[in-house]
Design brief:
Layout (H helix, E strand, L loop, with lengths): L3 E4 L5 H10 L4 E5 L9 E2 L2 E5 L6 H4 L4 E4 L8 H17 L6 E2 L4 E2 L4 E2 L4 E2 L4 E2 L4 E2 L4 E2 L4 E2 L4 E2 L4 E2 L4 E2 L4 E2 L4 E2 L4 E2 L5 E2 L4 E2 L4 E2 L8 E2 L17
Parallel strand pairs: 1-2, 1-5, 2-4, 6-9, 7-10, 8-11, 9-12, 10-13, 11-14, 12-15, 13-16, 14-17, 15-18, 16-19, 17-20, 18-21, 19-22, 21-23
Antiparallel strand pairs: 3-4
Length: 224
């Protein structure tokens, strides 16, 4: 394995670092021009450069990369930064590391896209397909025959029933659950923490119970 460079950082970087170390990966450092604290290291990993000046062309074959920038949808700057990091990966055809915690239970026929992360005690059942740059955090359960799009995050203790499709760039909050089969979660959707969803979710929809939201959480989609 090539030494690992994290592209960007976030509050989850310590989890990524732990899994890298548990799987005997050498960590070369973090490339990030603007990060929380602006210290010279994060989680005892040195910040070795900025994405604005790092020579990706020259280092393409020397390192594996992992996009560690934040996936939290409420911060537009962080979300745009992550998308920019993914664009850098594609533009320079960088080698991607996939980080999987040794405690997770993953069926042999599961397909996990490069650059993805699976955290502590996650359970991923048979015939699940997960796209590139996804984050499946601790204690997540994904049942059989699900399809998860690219750059999608399922936060801690999230649950997805079988035969469901989750789009690209989706954020499923901590403890949220998709508890019905044959549900489609649209691209760029956000499901707030602890919400139980039993219907399709449209592209760009935010599913929550606060404020002036009058959309039903259960049953068919209510369209205006």
């Amino acid at each position: 394995m090539r030494p690992l460079i994290f592209l960007g950082s976030s509050s989850s970087i310590d989890s990524f670092v732990q899994v890298a170390r548990l799987t005997n990966r050498q960590i070369a450092g973090i490339v990030d021009d603007n990060f929380f604290g602006n210290t010279s290291d994060i989680c005892n990993v040195s910040v070795i450069g900025s994405e604005l000046s790092w020579n990706f062309e020259h280092t393409r074959d020397q390192f594996d990369y992992f996009v560690g920038a934040s996936m939290v949808p409420i911060n537009t700057n962080d979300r745009n930064k992550r998308l920019n990091m993914i664009d850098i990966v594609e533009r320079y055809h960088l080698n991607l590391a996939t980080l999987i915690h040794p405690s997770s239970y993953i069926y042999p026929d599961v397909k996990i896209g490069s650059g993805s992360y699976v955290g502590y005690c996650a359970s991923i059942n048979n015939r699940v397909v997960i796209g590139k740059h996804c984050q499946i955090h601790a204690y997540v359960g994904i049942s059989h025959d699900c399809e998860i799009g690219m750059n999608t995050c399922i936060a801690h203790q999230g649950m997805i029933a079988g035969i469901n499709v989750v789009g690209n760039h989706v954020h499923i909050g901590m403890g949220a659950a998709i508890c019905k089969n044959n549900v489609v979660i649209g691209h760029h959707a956000v499901i707030h923490p602890r919400i139980t969803v039993m219907r399709d979710v449209e592209d760009n929809e935010i599913v929550h119970l606060g404020g002036n939201n009058t959309r039903r959480i259960y049953g068919e989609v209510v369209r205006s």
